[in-house]
């Protein structure tokens, strides 16, 4: 017994809708993947990540803050011109703050060159600047006579020491891990997009068509009905 025309029409409609839904899912996934890839590529085109830019700004703040404190110290101790000549021209390791300023300039040049210009993704540059800063400040605090020169004898070494270690923490725990995570995400999205490209999108409707199933026992019921009709006619 052949299936009814209505059942076949419903089956064809269902197969077409399933085909359309599959194409929609494929197009949506491909669109989302391409959007993510373009967003990550846009970040790469900017040349420097947001978190790395923040780190470079903090390094600049380090230099400016130490410079400001040193200028205040020059002005407090007898005027900028006289104190500047005393600390720079007649430099004395045991009493001058000029070397602490030069230490901030050293950190700024090395870190900006390494992480802004060369865009390094390693910690060796920050390790170098922090090690040099820590060793120099510890030696100066132990050997010099800064503590006898007022509050700046405490403030400048402590501020320089703290800023150097904050830069180390920020790079090691924020900049490098976040950039590595973004790079891994980009690789995952690219791999997923390559796999999605392998899925055929232009399949015909006939490839998804399955003939409608007949109802169970319909043929047997038809034969039994015909036999009963024949028996009634014979009677």
What are the main properties of this structure?
single chain; 235 residues; mainly alpha; 77% helix; rod-shaped
**Which stretches are low in confidence, meaning pLDDT under 50 for 5 or more residues running?**
1-9, 18-22, 24-28
Mean pLDDT: 78
Give the number of helices.
Answer: 7
Q: What is the alpha-carbon Rg in Å?
A: 39 Å
Percent strand equals under 5%
Class from secondary-structure proportions: mainly alpha
The portion of residues assigned to helices is over 70%
Question: Which oligomeric state applies?
Answer: single chain
User: Secondary-structure element order, as H and E?
Assistant: HHHHHHH
Based on CA inertia axes, which overall geometry fits?
Answer: rod-shaped
Structural summary, described in words:
This protein has a domain at 50-197. The protein is an all-alpha fold and 235 residues long. The protein is rod-shaped. Residues 1-9, 18-22 and 24-28 have low confidence and may be disordered. The chain has 7 helices and no strands. One of its GO terms (molecular function) is cholesterol binding. Its main location: membrane. One of its GO terms (biological process) is vesicle tethering to endoplasmic reticulum.
Topology diagram in text:
Layout: H1 5-45, H2 50-76, H3 80-89, H4 98-117, H5 124-143, H6 152-197, H7 218-234
Helix pairs in contact: 1-6, 2-3, 2-4, 2-6, 4-5, 4-6, 5-6
Summarize the structure.
It is found in: Late endosome membrane. It is built from seven helices and no strands. It is mostly helical and 235 residues long.
